[in-house]
Structure formats: structure tokens, C-alpha cells
Amino acid sequence: MSGLRAPASGREGGTGSVDAVLRVLLTRRWIVLTVVFVAMVLVMYRLGLWQFHRYQQTNKDNHRISLAVHAPPVAIETLTRPGAKVPESERYRPVTVTGTYDPAHQFVVRRRTNSDGEIGFFLITPLVTSDGKAVLVNRGWVAPNNDDGAAFPALPKTPQGTVTLTGRLQPDETSALSGIRNVSGLPPRQYMLISSREQAANLPEPVLGGYLELVSAKPPLTRADSAQLVAGPDSDSQSTSDEAIVGKGVHLPYAIQWWLFAAMVPVGWGVLLRQDLKDRRKKAAAAKSAAAAPAEPEPVPTEQRS
């Protein structure tokens, strides 16, 4: 038994031993690679967390919007007043208002899309209530002029007499809220944003804060006095006034995707390390074979043969 040698321990052995792995990992190349891989995992994890937080916020917003959309209609003056700012919690609340349209002060809002993605205008007509206040009413989308898309478009007729409107309450548009840059110097009766504060300077009546996004009217609208109504947040359609459904449903898959990428990075690191060790083992074996091979005898000079 004394002629048998015990196998070398893992810490003493060849290129697959713990010592060999540590020697590889402590090389400059693998230190840099490991730092890069760890940074990739941290970045991907944070991106996944960011998308998950957006998913939670979207769910929270959608729940709030759902409650607002399905609330019973209330008189608009119970939620807003002249000069007031409509809180985000009241956005999309169904409201009603009765009055007469003021076509002399109606205007259009540029670069708005309908449910088919076509660019045109929103038609805004003030409605004057019996107590002398004005409400901006977004009557819907109208097509641009065929010859000049920036020219004032052809408008539907304005309903005459007293009407009762039902619609969604919306806060004043701002560049920060809508992402639309407000531009001055536009042609008459053309604007970039729907803003009661901006229009208060143009109307003789005090203007209620925010505006009404028209849903229905009594008496019912006719074809001649109808614009294309703006789709609501509970619709499959989307217009440029509907920011609630942008990105809905995509954040959770993105979060899972980033976390899967983060989980795959250590796997890739391990595969690279395994391949590197395998290559080093092959090189070591080749070097060992070359060292163990017998040396070729030196050739004998011709003079010594005779």
C-alpha cells in the first residue's frame, strides 16, 4: 500500500481547483469583468424596480380614474369656481351644466388627434350659465382645412337656445401636464392649450376653472352641430387629451424583463469563467505533455560515423 499515493486535494490540484479559480478571478481581466457584471446586475435591478413602481402608480391612478369616471354626475359648480384650480382627484368626474353657447368667443386648439390618430383641432365653445358664469366646453375634434392644415378649420353649427350638457371635468391644460409647448403669436382664435385662466381675459363673464369635455347634450346633438367627441379613459380609443391610458399595462412586463436580464448576468459570468478555466486546463495539459516528451537525440557528425 505504501506504493499508492493519495490523490491531491482540491486546494493543491490542477487548474480546476479552488486555488486555480482564485488565481483566475484575481487577474486584472476578471476583476474588471466581475465589477462590470455586478454593475449590470445592480442597474438592471434598479430599472426593474423603477418600472414596478411605475406599475404601482399606474394602478393607483387607474383606480382613482375609475372611481371618478363611474361617480354619479354633479353640477359643475359644486367642484369648481371662477379662477379655481381643478384638483387631480376630481379629474374625469362626470358633471352637468345648463346654459347657452357663446359662439362669438369660441376658438380651436391646434395639433390634437382623434381616435384614429389624425391631427386636427379641438373645438372649444364657452357656455354661459343662467347666473352669468362661463364654462369652457370641449365639443370635440374637427378636421383641418384640406388646403392648409394650420388655417382655421370649418366648424359645425353651434346649438341654439338653452342646453344641458354632461361631460368629464378636466383641469386647465399646462405645458407641464400635457407636454405641449404653448406658442404665442398664433392666428386669431387659435391656441395650443385649453386654459380657463388664459381665456378669462377674452370673455366678459367670469370663467369657471378647468373645462368640460363633452359627453352628451339635451336636446341631443344633431349631425350638423356635432364634432367628434373626445374618447374617455375607459375607452379603447386614445386622443391627445387622454393622458391616463398612456403606458397602461406595460410597466409590469418591463419590470419582469429587467429582472430576468439581471438574473441571466450571473449565469453568463459563470459560463465565461468555466470556459476560461477549461481553456487554461487545456493549455496546462499541452505544456505538461510537451515537457514530458523525450528529447530527440542529437545527430552524429559524419566524420564520427567513419
Automatic annotation (TrEMBL):
A Pfam family that the UniProt record links to this protein: SURF1
Subcellular localization(s) per the UniProt record: Cell membrane; Membrane
Composition bias type Low complexity, residue spans: 286-295
GO cellular component: plasma membrane
Entry superkingdom: Bacteria
Family the entry assigns: Belongs to the SURF1 family.
UniProt-recorded name of the protein: SURF1-like protein
